[in-house]
Write the structure tokens for this entry.
Amino acid sequence: MRRLHKLAAATGVAAAVICATVQPAQAYTPTVKPHAATIAVSEDTTYFIGGDGKVYLTGWDVQAASGATRATPTALAGLPSGVRAQSIASGYRFVLVVGSDGKVYGAGANGVGQLTDTSADHSQQHKSTLTPLAGLPSGVSAKAVAAGLNFSVVLGSDGKVYGTGWNSNGVLTTSMPTGSTYKLTPLAGLPSGVRATAIDAAAYQTVVLASDGGVYGTGYSTHGSLSVKESLKQLTAFGGLPAGMSIKAVAVSYENVVLLGSDGHVWVTGDNSEGQLGLGSADTNDHTQARRIPGIEHAVAIEAGQSSVLAVDQYGFVYGIGANYGQLSDIGTPVTTADAVRVAPGQPSKAGMVEVASTAADTLVRDADGVVLGVGSNSYHQLTGTGDRSALTALAGQRISAYKSPAVSGTAKVGSTLTAKNGSWSVKPTAYSYQWYRGSTAVSGATSATYKLTSADKGRKIKVRVKGTRTSFTSGTAYSPATGTVG
């Protein structure tokens, strides 16, 4: 009965949906931000950033106020021309996006100001396209976003944390009144001179990693997850952290706070009713002191699911522990010893995983080739197609897109040979094809990775079109910049 109750609560809570990641050097990313999250998942929608800089969703479509579902990836509208998504987070039927222009954009539910509302009567109950959030001071850009049940938090370039939405249980601190706040406002509690470096949020909790090496939390301290047994009304330093070790990342769910240590170990506070603390058995005690999960070594990314903990190690394996509603592969009894999340046979990539996001009944990962895979419930088509997934399975409809254009190397002189450089792609192609152009005209027969300039090219500019293909993915094409005039 306890497990059924918790699953029902998670469905309405949209627990921790995003974590700060410490990605290995070989990881796919369409951005240069060190803690960028390129995937996110709520209880009925999954999101990922494509190589074209757009955000794609499957499942419940937050753009439709009346409700609709998408069985294949659908791009969210609203980002201005030239602005690319760099990081994302999702709450209960709303999504947040950090744009390359340093602004925060949001779409979906806005009944309590979680996406801000500058109208006089606060009538903007829903935003159907990605729309800028209001309140960041002039000159301050967004570095990261996180979302709880009905509130949003933003990490500013000034080292402050800003929040908007429903301030329940002190989740947005005493700097905001209880109830709704309709613009981004600084949270209270960080000591003078201490800057926030990473953030995460869950149903009624906000947690901040700070420049002094401390972890600060505010809101409802479920089962001691914020290192105290009572609720907090301002950002307050955690006690009981491992001595002499720095914290590299933080992830939050309704019941647990997960910390990634500089030693590559994963530490957890809060609930252990499903054995998610790795103590070997479950209990109902409040765990205010961080406990290390045995069996997970060399972790590089972490996530806090609903009554579960997930981590990616440096070898690309995803491990899970705790409640298992299908998000840890094959619905079954709680996993009380960390175990690898299974990949379905015949998947289109054998690359290691680099990023993970999870909620009550779904886990989403991205591998080092850029492929997004999911496991768990598919009741809203959030994992594409139909039918639940018992192991990690690639989402259908992913596109191969170049996020770094191809290039041409060599000397633009008759008799010289030019070489195509493939660029970087959202999903790593397994094959490339080429077409060389003289101006805007395709050169007949010039379809290899190299091209020897002829007298016909003199006085013209040359470019190459590269096409990337991979079985089961929509192929992509991209053009290089043109060379200088051929001499």
Q: What stands out?
A: The radius of gyration is 23 Å. The longest strand covers residues 283-292. Residues 2-394 form a domain with the Methylamine Dehydrogenase; Chain H fold (CATH 2.130.10.30). Residues 1-27, 31-35 have pLDDT under 50 and may be disordered.
